[in-house]
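Allow me, if you will, to draw on your knowledge of protein folds for a short while. The matter concerns a single protein, recorded as an amino acid sequence and a row of backbone structure tokens. Could you please explain, in whatever detail you think fit, how the structure tokens follow from the sequence? I remain grateful for any guidance, and I place the record below:

…
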Amino acid sequence: MIFTIEINGQAVTARRGETIFSVLSRTGISVPTLCHLAGFTPTGACRMCVVEVEGKPELVTSCSHQVEEWMKIRTHSPRVMKARKTIVELLLANHPDDCLYCDRAGSCELQYLASELNIKERRYRTRNPSIRIDRDCVSIERDPAKCILCGRCIRVCDEIMGMSAIGIVGRGSKSSIGTSYNKGLNIQACVKCGQCIMVCPTAALKEKSSYNSVIDALNNKDLFPVVQISPGVQGSLAEDLGIKGGRDLQNLLGTALRKMGFRQVFDTSASADLMILDISHQLVRDIKDKKKMPLFTSCCPSWVKFIEEYKPELKEHLFAGKSPMLTTGSWIKDHYAGQMNIEREKIFSVAVMPCTSKKHEIAAGKEKDLHTIDAVLTTRELIRMIRLFGIDFSSLEPENTELGFGIRGSSGRLSGIAGGETEAVIRTFYSEMTGQEMVPGKINELRGLKNRKEVKIKIGRTAYTFASVSGLAAARQLLEEIETGKSEFLMVEVMACPFGCINGGGQRMGTDEKALKSRMKALYDADEEEMIKVAHKNPSILEFIESIR
């Protein structure tokens, strides 16, 4: 049912069932919020989105209150503005005064609201006991003193990741967001994905930084610093640095990193091609050996950790090969070092990833004495470094990026999108099974921003079903279907972060659907333009495989 309401003296069309907040957003009126997350059931926890409704004695939260016929709403009346200002002032009363050196300075939502509401002094003060910062986790740091109890992190961890690693602890004024028995994230259900960081409005959650160690390595004359770049990083970088579409960002980035002091720059996409080829080989072997399926991908360390912790019986179904990051790291330390006549220990190998769980992956590797990566930088950390070194991308000239194995194909780059790795594997698997190339190579069923995608492909006389799922809550549901026999797949690609690495926990803050579509389009456009679209036709990969036999 459609009816008319009045907002700030103007007639506006509304539909029954809509919230006031959604009507305001649709008509171009912005009200502040600290707890709202698009796509989630509203809670009204922060109270920042309150509006005045004629005839109602109390202010109402616009995010959780549905529109009613003949409503008259005021969004920025003196009463409303006073309420919002008081809310922010009360939050600031419990907040540390370290904005000058806080990681979120300039991108903190609480700081932004304080400025917007013209708060110039601290009117309320409280005495807060010293709160320990949780630094035990190798990927994520948690500072409870900066938490404003918005609950966003809890909802993402519960509803999207299905992990419930954090929750509300205590009651009333003693409430806080914490972990069970206050043991820290390192020994909780946390899979180190970093999605909680992406929704945190302050610096209560942030990545465990490798920033200083990388800066030190760049200034150490005894070290030979090198860096590899994940294909999922570039779109986010372009957004933050204001780089126009159509420029060769990969080679521009290579130029920038060399100016910063890295002696060589590598592209992780080449190793992704090798992984895709190996997965296809394993599928062919498993079919021949009549092995129980499906085969699960293993390039996402959060997914691997989930299997190890909660579904160890499925470990034998995980692809046994290394992730592209670790493969590139091994190649650098074990082959490139020899080619360049450099001692292995003097190479300081850095990986720039859109992901916080990659920090966990290298820590786990060191525990197993597999030390091939010295530091992982998130996209956010790289952006800080670029600004520290004063790199102006508008004045740079692109330089060719060293590709490790030599040539990158578009199939490896597709692995940055949920469904992209599956599409790339199918192209090569089809060729191995039939001796012919799959035409067309584009698989629409595996594209788009969906948490679950499935496709059935007829290869020879047999139809094989593949699935791609992102977000561990969706993965849990799919596992239940497989375990109960409801669904059968040849291969399942799992990405912990919704929609894949383009939305990884190490990407730039403020990522929205428009940004995700832009990043996805950039990778698919590269697939259209690239000459080598399948892993099994990458000559450098084939040459490398031959060299190690």
Notes: The chain has a mean pLDDT of 90. The first strand starts at residue 2 and ends at 7. The first helix runs from residue 20 to 26.
